[in-house]
Design a protein that fits this description.
alpha/beta, Rossmann fold, 9-stranded mixed β-sheet, two-stranded antiparallel ribbon, 8 helices, 11 strands, globular
Length: 250
Amino acid sequence: MPEIVTLSCDSYDRTVREAFEQAGGPDALAGFEHILLKPNLVNASPFPVTTHPDFTAAAIDAIRAHTDAPITIAEGTGDKDKETDEVFAVLGYKDLARCKGVDLLDLNHADLTEVSRPGCTVFSTMWLPQVAFTHCIVSLPVLKGHSMAVVTGTMKNMMGFAPPSHYQGGGWKKALFHRNMDGSIRDLNRYVTPHFTIMDATVGLKDYHLGGPRCCPEVGMILAGADPLAVDRAAAGLLGIDWRTVGHLR
């Protein structure tokens, strides 16, 4: 099985399914009774800042071709002013959920459990939603640079699981992570990391995760793989960034 699949995007419907299947997505689902899709809905800005609902719809169709397990779209937005439910509505995810017959879950207010992991230097323990440990997590990030993490991909996308009740620490709902971004991302992924990733790299934001110039020319790719570190390293390359210069990817 290839570690990472990178395909030129013909259309979301066709390419997402091809990437999912070629990279071993059906195997990643095996044994799970529930599927959790984790788009990047950091705020209410439209694609390419956030994951396009049409991309998520294509992922749902690709998954349903291989399992009857119920699917939940889950996010905990980092927006300082809006709640996740508002972001779902603004970005079309409530309409998508009704159309596809899937559930929506606000991770910022989900039932929590406390866990610990050896070797974590930033978060020796963490409070995380219980669904992080019961569902197959399929991450659906977009290709973006980041002002603090250099690259934001599927590993940083896991910050949506961090509840503001424990990790706000400032204006943004996950601001506590900003004190040591690379170390926080590393530790978080020791607790909860995706079982599979499909990344929308059709456009790409080269410099800034909340806007700024798009990649020129646009990247035009879909990435998929079961190894989140490999996916993010490949994504860095698409942005012209050497992953060895990125703290949480080294």
